[in-house]
Structure formats: structure tokens, C-alpha cells
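Morning F.,

Quick status update on the modeling queue. The single chain you submitted on Monday has been processed. Sequence for confirmation:
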Amino acid sequence: MALSDPLIGSLTLLDLIVFIIFFVILAVISKASYSAVRWYLDRRVSKKASKGFARLVQYSILVMGLYIGFVVLLEQDISSLFVSLGIISLAVALASQQVLGNAFAGMLIAASKPYELEDWVEIGGLPITGLAKVRDIGLMFTEFRDLDGRIVVVPNSFLLANKVINYTKGGFVSLNVTMHLSPESDLEKVFKVVYNVADIDEDILPNLKGDERTAFIRQLELPNIRSILGDRPDLKMFDPKVNVVSVEKSRVKVNIRIWIKDPQRRETITSKFLLELRSRFASENIEMADS
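C-alpha cells below.
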């Protein structure tokens, strides 16, 4: 077959070779543009804004380049080209279904922004990651770093089809701590100790001061927060709650609910809170029971 022989309509093998070379050059240019924008902006704006704008430039170059490639190099009308490809187009589409699905999901994620760079999230259907920070958002995949330092790469189509809990956008998260006490325990004293320990812990809400308190109150006024908490959010709703869950012959089960601002430190905060409670219980002669 000669290079000038038509393959599909007026499209020749030479046209396809030229288009492939053009696409490779286009990919290199778009990647170089991404790196150049990152190099320039990383020192001037936040990392999140730098990456977002660099991705926008990269995708814009790719889209415009592909359009030029089809219309100018191949001299094809895109809509008529898809029609003329017929069965071949259908086969390619089926073979590329997962790739196209990831790309489409990536564009939807970029438009709707359920999460952004540096956000702390938890992915439903993928318990291996647990809590993880968004490290990079690409057209096909999103990259996360979990609390153990592992890099987890997840297809965008999976993220679009599953629940993503965004702790950063929420601004706070509740923790439920269960304790078992002796049935002879003075519950009024237990409640008093729990409230006191929570009140002096700077990591537990609503124990905020100065500018941090002002910033948090402003955060509560954001539309996405008010839609959950109501029109008049109040710091009192973040007060610790202590409830007796069950009373048995050998123990009393108590559930403690606290609120924190830093979900990525929830295990550390919970551990510190429990250790302080155990110490205070011992000093107040409050006995723990076996769980």
C-alpha cells in the first residue's frame, strides 16, 4: 500500500503518519507548558492554584491542537469524520470505553470540583486508602497520599461512581469515643471530667481563641456549611456530648462525641484525649471496666 492510497474516504496513510507525529509533538508541548507554568507560578501563588491553572493550560493546548490536527492536517470535518468511520469508530470506541470514561470523569471532576488539591478526603469503595490528601488531579487519574505516606493512584471514573467524603470542605469532623465504666461509677463526675478534659484540649472544638475563632465562625457562614447546619450556626453545637448507651450488670457503656478541625490528625487527637481521660479517671477514683 502506497502512502498516498486512501484508507477511509480521502484520508491517506501519509495523513495519519503526519497526524501521529503532530500529536506526539503536541503532547510534548502541552507537558512542557504545564511544567513552565508550574515553575513560574509555584513561587507566586499557592500550590493548589498553580497546579489548577497549569492543568487548564495543558488541556487547552491539547484540545486546540487536536482540533487543528483534524481540521487543518487531516482536512476533515469532525462530525462527518465520525460518521464516515462507521464500524471502525464503533470498535475503537468500545475498545477505548474505559479510557474515555476516565477522561470524561476527569473533565467532570475538574468542572464540579468535589475535591481540590491538598484536600483531605476518604473514598467510599476503596477502604485501603482511608484518609488521604489529594496530591494531583489528572485527566485520567487522581493521585492521593495516605497517612502512611503511600501514593495511591485512582481512575477518575471510579471516583465519579463512588462516594468521596471531603473533610477539608466540611471544615470539621466529629469523633465518637466509646468507654466502659464500672457500674459503681459516679456518672455525674464522669460527665464533669469529660467536659473538663475536652475544654482544655486545644485540638477539640469549640476551644478556639482569637483569629482562629473568628476564622472558624466565618467558615460556618459559607453556603455549603449553612446548608448542613442551618441558617444560624452556633459554636455551642460543637460542645462535647456524653451519652449513656447501655447499663449492664458488669459495666456501663458511655459514648463521647467530640468535634475537631484537623481530620488528618484524628487518630493522634483521639489517643491524646483517651490518655488524658484515663489519667483523670484514675485521679478521681473512677474505675474502668473490661470491654
